[in-house]
Every structure is written in structure tokens, then in C-alpha cells.
Design goal:
single chain, 7-stranded parallel barrel, two-stranded antiparallel sheet, 261 residues, TIM Barrel, alpha/beta
Length: 261
């Protein structure tokens, strides 16, 4: 039976401002990327999500980002190496402490937003994030954009890497994500999302925004928790996968799910 990990970005509410439906998403996904307070999230809310995830035996990842609460971590930044290494260590350490209190463990790291997109190709910032991960816990897996240069860079540095595809984001012909500033960058129709992800899992291919076919090798699929149709998309994916004999399973429990350099 084919299997795939399904992840979502959670714990991103801040005080009275609510972002997504974390509890509903936790009933569907197999891995949860939990905000660490820099781009979103507050300690009380993060701890609550961690406890709920622990009760469901969901795999936990640190969703580290730029220090950018106002921009939700989606604005490009150019921190020094010392800053970025320190920020990476700080965020992972904070989530590890909260996870311990919640009775669970941080298993992987998935950078957020602009940081995620930048380090996909920026070797300097990628090296800083990799260095931060290795400094605090080299056993952590890095979740990275399938096909991006950072995958080989992180493996060469000794990190385990799991490759990720995005269910609700459009792709360029080179395998990069279409900028959120452009029309059509986010796909909102659950059935369309499910069809393209089924093709990815069964064929390793999907259609780019210009109509060309691209090849992607991914062990995890992300549904953004802040997408308006997020819960409907996640339910549709779960149902369609089940109907086609595809099992949802955390990559941390799969043999060979993450590869180390």
C-alpha cells in the first residue's frame, strides 16, 4: 500500500486573533508544524496545540521563521549568519520546552514562509539554518521543498531530509512555488487539489501553472492551515487517498522516509 505524510502549519493564532482551525486539522493530519513565536503563535496557544497533538500521537515539527510578526513571516529578510543561527536555535529550543511540558517531542524542523522559500536556493541562509539545527539537535529531520538545492545541501551536511510538496499552492515549471503576489498562486478548490495530489503520489508528477508537467519526489504533503478551505481540502485529500488505497502515515514512522547525507 502506498503511503504519504500529510502536514499542516498550526499554532499560529496570537492572543485574540485566531488563525485556522487547529483542532479540526489535528484530526486529519499525521504531522504538525507548530509555530515557535517569531512569525506567529503565543506560548499559551502553542502549548494547547501541542497537548492536543500529543493526545492524537501526531508527529511534531518546529515551524521556525524570520522575526516578523507583522508580516506573518512572509516578508523577505537578510539577517546576519549569527542572527539566523541564533534565531533558529532559540525557536527550536522554545518549542522543545513546551513540547516536553505537553508530553511530546519535537521530531523535525520545517522553516516557514519567506525563510522557507529563501533557503530553498540561498546557500548562505540555508547553511545558517542547517547549522542552527545541528547545534541544538542533529537528530532532527529537516523538511524542505522537493527538488530544491537545499535538499542536497542539508544531506551533505549530515541532516536527514524529508521532501515536501504543497497541496494548495501552484508551481512554476522549475519546481518553485508561484509567488503569493500572483493570481492563481493558491488553489482553493478541494477536488482540484485532491486530483493533483493523487497524481503526485501515484505518478510523481503534477501540472505547473503554465501547463507543463513537472516531476517531484515528495514524502510529505502540506495543507496550509490558514487557507480558507483548509479543512475541506484536508478532508478531501484524506477521503480520496483512502479510496485509492493510499495510507496517511507520518514520515517519522516510515522506513527510509527521511534520507541523511
Amino acid at each position: 500500500m502506498a503511503s504519504i505524510d500529510l502536514n499542516s502549519d498550526l499554532g499560529e493564532s496570537f492572543g485574540p486573533w485566531r488563525m485556522g482551525d487547529d483542532l479540526a486539522m489535528l484530526d486529519i493530519v499525521t504531522s504538525a508544524n507548530i509555530a515557535c513565536g517569531f512569525h506567529a503563535g503565543d506560548p499559551e496557544g502553542i502549548l494547547k496545540v501541542l497537548r492536543e497533538a500529543a493526545s492524537r500521537d501526531i508527529s511534531i515539527g518546529a515551524h521556525v521563521g524570520y522575526r516578523d510578526l507583522v508580516g506573518f513571516g512572509r516578508r523577505n529578510m537578510d539577517p546576519s549568519s549569527a542572527e539566523l543561527i541564533g534565531d533558529t536555535i532559540y525557536q527550536i529550543g522554545a518549542l522543545q520546552g513546551l513540547a516536553r511540558a505537553a508530553g511530546t517531542t519535537v521530531r523535525y524542523v520545517k522553516p516557514h514562509g519567506a525563510l522557507y522559500n529563501t533557503i530553498a536556493n540561498d546557500t548562505r541562509q540555508a547553511a545558517d539554518v542547517i547549522a542552527g539545527i545541528k547545534a541544538i539537535d542533529p537528530s532532527l529531520t529537516l523538511m524542505a521543498l522537493a527538488g530544491a538545492p537545499i535538499v542536497d545541501q542539508a544531506r551533505a551536511a549530515g541532516l536527514a531530509v524529508v521532501c515536501e510538496a504543497f497541496a494548495d499552492r501552484a508551481y512554476n515549471a522549475d519546481g518553485s512555488l508561484v509567488s503569493r503576489r500572483l493570481p492563481g498562486s493558491v488553489i482553493h478548490e478541494p477536488k482540484a487539489v485532491a486530483e493533483r495530489m493523487l497524481r503526485l503520489v501515484t505518478e510523481g508528477r503534477m501540472t505547473a501553472i503554465d501547463g507543463t508537467d513537472i516531476t517531484l519526489e515528495a514524502q510529505s504533503i502540506c495543507v496550509h492551515g490558514d487557507t480558507p478551505a483548509a479543512i475541506s481540502i484536508a478532508h478531501m485529500l484524506k477521503d480520496e487517498f483512502a479510496a485509492r488505497g493510499v495510507q496517511l502515515k507520518a514520515f517519522t514512522s516510515m522506513d527510509g522516509g527521511a534520507n541523511r547525507g
